[in-house]
Specification:
- The chain is built from four helices and four strands.
- It is of the alpha+beta class.
- The protein has a domain of 94 residues: Gyrase A, domain 2 (2-Layer Sandwich), CATH 3.30.1360.100.
- A hairpin with a 2-residue loop joins strand 1 and strand 2.
- The protein is rod-shaped.
């Protein structure tokens, strides 16, 4: 039998396989490294894109916050103006009431009754005066009760002419002003 030495051929094949393995390992490492770099670049691009979107949204939110603040200020100004307009409207509607009050007082005031003080607080009016007799004060109260824009008289104080020393009775009377709109509303509800 002939002896063939296969060791050099096996050694060469083993070295070739080792070389092929190292080449494949190098290519695999290169591909893995390139893939990792690509994934990193892709993620960095997405992160920078998201940061750009976030920055844009923050600037838009800040702009909207400024607009909301302006709208709130405008709403407050509007509410203030509406309150002022309401006050002016109430003043305009109540302007003739004082004239009507004095006109009704003159109409309701009987002879022999003299007014010394008229004080108004809201819708309530307090009158102080002098009268020749208690009957004249009673007549005055009846006239107030029958009036259209004043009513509900309440006698608060009366001093006889004997106690005052002036020959006249002193009295204090209060009544309420009745607005014509309140009377018509009350009449409509019944």
């Amino acid at each position: 039998m002939a002896r063939i030495n296969l060791l050099p051929w096996r050694e060469e094949a083993r070295q070739q396989r080792q070389k092929d393995f190292l080449t494949a390992l190098g290519i695999a490492l290169a591909i893995t490294f390139a893939g990792a770099v690509l994934v990193h670049v892709y993620n960095e691009d997405r992160i920078s894109g998201q940061q750009a979107k976030n920055t844009y949204l923050q600037t838009q939110i800040a702009a909207l916050d400024r607009k909301i603040k302006e709208i709130d200020e405008l709403e407050k100004t509007k509410a203030d103006l509406l309150a002022r307009m309401d006050i002016i409207q109430k003043l305009q509607t109540s302007r003739p009431e004082i004239v009507r009050l004095f006109d009704e007082l003159v109409t309701a005031l009987p002879a022999g009754v003299y007014l010394t003080k008229v004080q108004q607080t809201g819708r309530s009016v307090v009158i102080e005066g002098r009268a020749q007799s208690n009957a004249r004060v009673s007549a005055f109260m009846s006239q107030v009760e029958g009036s259209q824009s004043i009513g509900k008289p309440r006698l608060m104080l009366i001093e006889n002419k004997d106690k005052t020393g002036t020959g006249l009775s002193h009295f204090r009377l209060s009544f309420d002003q009745v607005s014509p709109t309140a009377e018509t509303e009350a009449g409509d509800q019944t």
